[in-house]
Design goal:
- By secondary structure, the protein is of the alpha+beta class.
- The chain contains six helices and seven strands.
- Strands 1, 2, 3, 4, 5, 6 and 7 form a seven-stranded antiparallel sheet that branches.
- The radius of gyration is 20 Å and the shape is elongated.
Length: 204
């Protein structure tokens, strides 16, 4: 039987997608979203199949082309068991004021490399580990519990708002009456090939 389905059942996405932005511009706007939100949700999969999310704050990017995310975490936490079970993870950020959001899909890499930890460490992180007063677990950069989770993305999708709250509300109201589609922003994708290209520049 020949399908009579409408060729465009998701006009919102069709209208919002913008594939004409350069990789450098995409990453620039992505960094602005992450910086404005600060805290992301890292989602991992347990051996049971259940998915668990927790709030994590990434370190600041080291270059304008960086697409990976680096988090400090306690090696004794369950998230490490889940990453070792399945390294595929997602990290999402959402700015409720602007409606901009970002979603990283990729692989988590665990590291306790001393030089890497030293490079990204700052004293404020000590509060998340605490000094156990045993002479070993001091909550500093040499604490054996300290580990880095680096999320290396395969694909990044994000929405960047292009209109303010008043304009969004006005456009939504008009389209609700006229049957139009409100798209107060742009949906962008940083592809795997774009990530590989830009990381080549980042690592130089």
């Amino acid at each position: 039987m020949t399908s009579t389905a409408h060729p465009n059942l998701d006009p919102y996405v069709t209208k919002a997608e913008n594939n004409s932005v350069s990789p450098h511009e995409k990453i620039k706007d992505l960094h602005e979203i992450v910086k404005s939100v600060e805290t992301g949700m890292l989602t991992t999969r347990a051996s049971t199949g259940y998915m668990h999310s927790r709030a994590m704050v990434p370190t600041a990017p080291q270059s304008d082309t960086q697409t990976s995310l680096i988090f400090f975490a306690n090696k004794a936490s369950h998230k490490f068991d889940e990453i070792e079970n399945d390294a595929h993870v997602n990290v999402s950020f959402s700015n409720t004021k602007t409606t901009s959001w970002a979603s990283y899909a990729g692989i988590a890499k665990i590291s306790q490399d001393k030089e890497l930890i030293k490079k990204h460490w700052h004293t404020g992180l000590s509060a998340w580990f605490g000094d156990l007063k045993d002479g070993v677990h001091k909550g500093n950069e040499n604490d054996p519990r300290v580990a880095i989770i680096e999320v290396i993305p395969d694909e990044i999708r994000y929405w960047v708002a292009t209109k303010g709250a008043v304009s969004r509300a006005l456009e939504t109201g008009i389209n609700a009456v006229t049957g139009g589609v409100s798209v107060p922003g742009e949906l962008r994708t940083i592809t795997s090939s774009e990530i590989q290209l830009t990381q080549g520049l980042h690592n130089k």
